[in-house]
Write a structure and sequence with these properties.
The complex is a heterotrimer of chains A (311), B (598) and C (238). Chain A is mainly alpha-helical and 311 residues long. Chain A contains 12 helices and no strands. In chain A, helix 5 packs across helix 8 (173-202), helix 10 (217-255) crosses helix 11 (260-269) and helix 10 (217-255) packs antiparallel against helix 12. The chains are: A mainly alpha (311), B alpha/beta (598), C alpha/beta (238).
């Protein structure tokens, strides 16, 4: 029931994203084809292009063809390269996905244990120095943008020390800097969230009762606290994971990563609206998928949202 | 402005001030140099003439960086203005609109929040056209959903509060509520968030310009400078240092300042940080023999930093006996219970003696504490872990301390749930706490205490959160467990009647001390004026309705302001001169210089 | 109505529904001029929903006759949540003043009300956080009285307070009735308190009134089984 409702909302949002990507082309002030071809292009060329793209037909018809084609992954062809937009995205997206997934996994693997450990160390006002160090470092990291970290790392590890490749995607070493640059902010924020939620749980009655039962610390933290702290963290912090997608565009640009981000930037800068349209749809769909998956994970972690057991 | 003292806030503030100074003086001092072409020195690295090198026009990069401060900050300010002007009304709208429109706006905001800000900004910028204007609109618009959602959450909290309900009953309209109550209460966190947003806008604009989607030449901001110098990072890394550092300083400055102040204002006022802990000397002399007492507290004192909420409490509980502790909130009764269980929260420390079965509490092995000491707390809704099945929360006592297998432990858990008279205990064990009512949960907590061989059950306000009919059954269950297992019990309550009904003996606490100890049958004939007043001010089903209820003027002193003499003296009608200066030591269960007649 | 007084408030077939949850079912009762009617019940009995429905805070169906829109005022359970933390006591108390009080009469009226609830008039310049729970609850009563109500609805007003403070507030409710002839709907889960304060009492269970009558009669000779069970469960001091 719960999953069904979430799935329904997910599908509905997907449709809205596709509609929005369609609307985009029509919201652009002026004539997008003229803008793409430049002011010097002959009028006939513009007209011909408009006809090719179907832009001269009434918009309900355009919408129908757009939806029909979008359903089969056909987003028309790039204004500039004339390659099918779907193919461009198919070529580029896997690299983006790899980068983002590796980063998400790393962020969770670091933030959850770190946040819980810091909570254990600092709850009830003890360990003030650790608390200060933790909040200062994560506070700083959480506001420094990806591209600054990226540029600083390139300068240090790539150019001065020459430890790591500075650009491109070639083997495991090439992942190190992009992943670190992308992961730092979300990891810091997630770790703060995990710590705060764990602190909240630590002061709850059930933890007091578990202490009264003299449970070993491992059981207290892993069995009693972890599910609750994780649920609370994902509820408020799930969106952090989608923010990685935005960051990936910049990181890909700086490291010349062969992903969708660089392509999207080029498409926007070059007024290649068909490609940009397709990119909107893909990024939107991926964001929604992440949100959906977080919701599902929450449902599985929290018995309160599961159907009542018969018995 | 005490909360300014956190290091992040201070760091943020200094960075912000630095940025603002350069925003003012930057273009004046370096504006000309920043645009001076020098075809002979293009694309140079560090030199004494050009600390950070030159660009493709031979213009000095340091001068350009400093001169760009005003443009960068100005654009961020514009973007934040857009965010605020749209986001705050959009977020406040649902609390003013009717329910359906409110649900629609709320849903819209929620679905927009799911999209990454930078992507929203890129596409908003695409629609508005590449360039500074597009970037400002894009960054400004992209932050709208986040700010709108925060505004809505804050406004909702206020709008659903009792004081707004009271205002509505008093006849205040929606607009009046918004102006009088909602805005003043959400203004501070919003202003701080907007400050932080200014930082994020600065960083976002720099990002867009870096990607080539923001400011276009011949204009320049820090992001544009980065865009132009980035390809040279592999040769002359120092050329990116200027704009990169500037962005870092300004962006993180605003963000840090806003975020740290917002967090500080959201936090509850922090507990007073006392002076170094005063550890009192342990109880004087050898302990008098009470060999059969299950629990013996001697001169038990609890301190939190400089304050001492429990002061030298002594009592004992024999096997099978149920002893009550009564007192009003702040009397120290719950902390006494926690100290007895060895569960004082940090930084609380206990001194004096707590003996369990004749042994000091700290020497009793954990395993024995886990099986022989049972605790029951006030709120049954919070006392069970919502994520774990009830049965496993019982069973873990047996697997941890008694070496039982999982199956044995679960069988034992079901048996104990049956003993506290939950119907169909096997099925109940497999349920989650949210499927239980309050009374059932409190039974489950008691059953948890029965997993071992309890010798002492400490119940702290176990029925305060329950309805009277449920309260009665839970108390009867506690008394029955006490009787059938022969365990000693300590029942803490604010309710004299509850304690007198089930306990043989009652300890009355006031301002951290036991002021009287007496059989509960003697409560109406208590000799301490406080106990008398407490009895007189609690109405029961026989209270004379023609007379006003007895009241106690004044209030109980907080732990930090307990006077030298008898703490009750300022409120006591029988107080003597001596009561204000000398503290009466408890003798024969009574601490009073001028007691009532028996 | 009983005791020869005219009915101030007449409630017929009151129903309150929150979505699919039916909180109050066909409840009818009347409160006479200067009468204190008690409404007792356990959690979920619907007694607080009655209070919210009568003051327009919850959606209702049925007829409520006898009172104008602001003539019923509500005092809430939690004195720590019912005062705006950013308003001085004086501003809070003046919130419901009718227009005719005007700007000049305001200060004097605030002082009068604060004295009426036995608070120092100088409290007007202080903020809620500086006051104790009992003092805050008095401020909430003064604020309600500022709207010149004919009926005061007290929803569990003492359950967040200590016993020694509770007595003083109960005395205050009785004095306000004696001095101002104010009618009170006194909602509580505590039968002993209701018995002490009220003239008549209605017992609620699962959204319905199961028994109603003069307080002595209901307490001494209850006719309903649920009322009997409730009375039996009240702990007595030995």
């Amino acid at each position: 029931m719960f999953l069904l409702r979430r799935a329904f909302r997910f599908v509905l949002s997907l449709v809205l994203v596709v509609l929005a990507s369609f609307a985009m082309l029509h919201l652009i002030p002026g004539d997008p084809v003229r803008a793409a071809l430049g002011p010097t292009a002959p009028r006939e060329a513009v007209e011909q292009r408009r006809a090719e793209l179907g832009l001269d037909r009434p918009w309900p018809e355009q919408l129908r063809t757009y939806l029909e084609k979008a359903a089969t992954g056909d987003f028309g062809e790039s204004f500039l390269s004339r390659q099918p937009a779907g193919q461009v995205i198919g070529d580029r997206f896997p690299a983006t996905l790899q980068l983002v997934v590796v980063t998400m996994v790393l962020a969770l693997l670091v933030a959850v244990p770190l946040g819980m450990a810091m909570a254990a160390r600092t709850h009830g006002g003890r360990g003030r120095r650790s608390e200060l160090a933790f909040t200062s470092v994560t506070g700083g990291l959480s506001v420094i943008p990806e591209f600054l970290l990226a540029v600083a790392m390139i300068a240090l590890f790539g150019v001065v020390l020459r430890w790591l490749p500075v650009a491109g995607k070639d083997g495991a070493a090439s992942f190190v800097m992009p992943v670190l640059a992308l992961a730092a902010g979300p990891t810091a924020l997630l770790a703060r969230l995990v710590r705060m939620e764990t602190l909240r749980e630590l002061s709850s009655d059930y933890v007091r009762l578990a202490r009264a039962k003299r449970l070993p610390a491992v059981r207290l933290y892993l069995v009693h606290l972890l599910p609750n702290a994780l649920t609370a963290t994902l509820t408020t912090g799930g969106l952090l994971l989608t923010s990685l997608l935005g960051g990936s565009v910049v990181v890909e640009y700086v490291f010349q990563w062969p992903g969708l981000g660089g392509t999207t930037v080029e498409a926007i800068a070059g007024k290649d609206y068909a490609l940009a349209q397709a990119a909107v749809a893909v990024y939107g769909a991926v964001s929604l998928t992440v949100v959906f998956l977080v919701d599902v994970a929450l449902g599985l972690l929290d018995p309160r949202s599961r159907p009542r057991m018969l018995g | 402005m005490r909360r300014m003292r956190t290091p992040s806030a201070l760091a943020g503030l200094s960075l912000v001030l630095l940025t603002l100074v350069f925003a003012v003086i930057g273009p004046w001092l370096w504006g000309e140099e920043a645009v001076r072409f020098d075809p002979l020195h293009t694309l140079e690295g560090h030199s004494s003439a050009h600390l950070l090198g030159t660009d493709d026009g031979g213009r000095d990069l340091l001068a350009r960086t400093l001169a760009a401060t005003r443009q960068s900050v100005w654009l961020a300010l514009l973007a934040t203005l857009i965010t605020t002007a749209v986001g705050v009304p959009l977020g406040a709208l649902p609390s003013v609109l009717g329910p359906r429109a409110a649900r629609f706006t709320a849903g819209l905001i929620d679905s927009l929040v799911a999209f990454p800000v930078l992507l929203l900004a890129m596409f908003a910028a695409l629609l508005a056209g590449a360039g500074a204007r597009g970037a400002v609109v894009g960054i400004g618009a992209a932050a709208v959903p986040g700010l709108a959602r925060l505004t809505r959450t804050l406004a909702d909290t206020v709008a659903t509060s009792d004081y707004v309900a009271a205002a509505r009953v008093l006849g205040a309209g929606r607009a009046a509520v918004l102006v009088r109550h909602v805005l003043p209460n959400i203004a501070e966190p919003l202003i701080l968030t907007v400050t932080a947003n200014l930082g994020y806008a600065l960083l976002g604009l720099a990002t867009l310009s870096l990607l080539g989607l923001g400011v276009q030449p011949p204009d320049y901001d820090w992001g544009r400078l980065l865009h132009d110098t980035l390809p040279r990072v592999y040769v002359d890394p120092e050329v990116v240092a200027g704009p990169a550092l500037a962005v870092a300083i300004a962006g993180t400055g605003f963000a840090l300042l806003g975020e740290s102040l917002a967090r500080a204002s959201a936090r509850a006022p922090s507990a007073p940080r006392g002076e170094p802990r005063t550890v009192l000397p342990p109880g004087c002399g050898p302990l008098p023999a009470a060999p059969d007492a299950v629990l013996e507290a001697r001169d038990l004192t609890v301190s939190f930093g400089g304050v001492t909420p429990v002061r030298g409490v002594s009592f004992s509980v024999a096997p099978g006996e149920l002893v009550g502790i009564v007192g009003e909130s702040g009397s120290g009764k719950s902390l006494t219970a926690l100290a007895v269980g060895g569960l004082l929260p940090h930084p609380g420390t206990a001194s004096g003696h707590v003996l369990l079965g004749g042994r000091p509490l700290e020497e009793v092995p954990r395993r024995e504490l886990g099986t022989r000491l049972a605790m029951v707390f006030q709120d049954p809704m919070a006392a069970l872990n919502p994520a774990l099945r009830v049965g496993s929360q019982l069973a873990e006592v047996a697997t941890t301390h008694l070496g039982a297998s999982r199956r044995e432990a679960w069988r034992r858990a079901a048996d104990r749930l049956g003993r506290v008279r939950l119907p169909d205990p096997e099925a109940q064990a497999r349920r989650y706490p949210h499927e239980f009512s309050g009374g059932m949960r409190q039974r489950a907590v008691i059953a948890m205490g029965l997993m071992g061989e309890p010798e002492l059950i400490v119940a702290d306000e176990p029925t305060t959160a329950l309805d009277v009919t449920v309260q009665k059954r839970v108390l009867e269950l506690l008394a029955e467990v006490n009787e059938t297992t022969g365990a000693a019990g300590l029942l803490i309550s604010h309710d004299l009647a509850v304690v007198s009904r089930h306990c043989g003996r009652v300890l009355v606490m006031y301002a951290g001390r036991i002021v009287e100890e007496l059989p509960s049958s003697e409560l109406r004939r208590a000799r301490h004026p406080y106990t008398r007043a407490l009895v007189a001010s609690s109405p029961d089903l026989k209270t004379d309705r023609s007379l006003p209820l007895a009241t106690i003027p004044g209030r109980q002193p907080a732990p930090a302001e307990v006077p030298d003499g008898c703490a009750f003296a300022p409120r006591c009608a029988r107080a003597l001169e001596r009561c204000r200066t000398d503290r009466p030591e408890p003798t024969a269960g009574l601490a009073c210089w001028n007691p009532e007649d028996a | 109505m009983k005791g020869g007084r005219g009915a101030l408030l007449d409630v017929r077939d009151l129903n309150v529904r929150y979505g699919g949850f039916h909180a109050v079912r066909d409840v009818s009762f009347a409160v006479g001029e200067g009468e204190i009617l008690g409404l007792v019940g356990e959690s979920g009995s619907g007694k607080s929903s009655v209070a919210r429905a009568l003051t327009g805070l919850a959606p209702r169906t049925g007829t409520v006759a006898g009172l104008g829109p602001r003539e019923a005022q509500l005092v809430f359970q939690d004195p720590y949540a019912s005062l705006d933390p950013r308003m001085t006591v004086g501003r809070s108390v003046a919130e419901g003043f009718p227009r005719e009080v005007g700007r000049r009469g305001r200060r004097a009226e605030v002082a009068r009300l604060l004295e009426l609830v036995q608070l120092d008039p100088r409290t007007a310049g202080r903020y809620p956080r500086e006051l104790s729970g009992g003092q805050r609850q008095r401020v909430a009563v003064a604020r309600a009285l500022g709207a010149r109500p004919r009926l005061l609805i007290a929803d569990e007003v003492t359950s967040a307070l200590d016993v020694s403070v509770q007595g003083a507030l109960l005395n205050l409710v009785r004095e306000l009735r004696a001095e101002l002839g104010l009618a009170v709907l006194f909602i509580s889960h505590d039968l002993a308190v209701v018995r002490y304060v009220c003239d008549r009492v209605a017992v609620m269970r699962e959204g319905r009134i199961v028994e109603e009558g003069p307080v002595e009669q209901v307490i001494e000779h209850p006719s309903n089984d649920y009322t009997k069970a409730l009375l039996e469960a009240v702990p007595h001091l030995r």
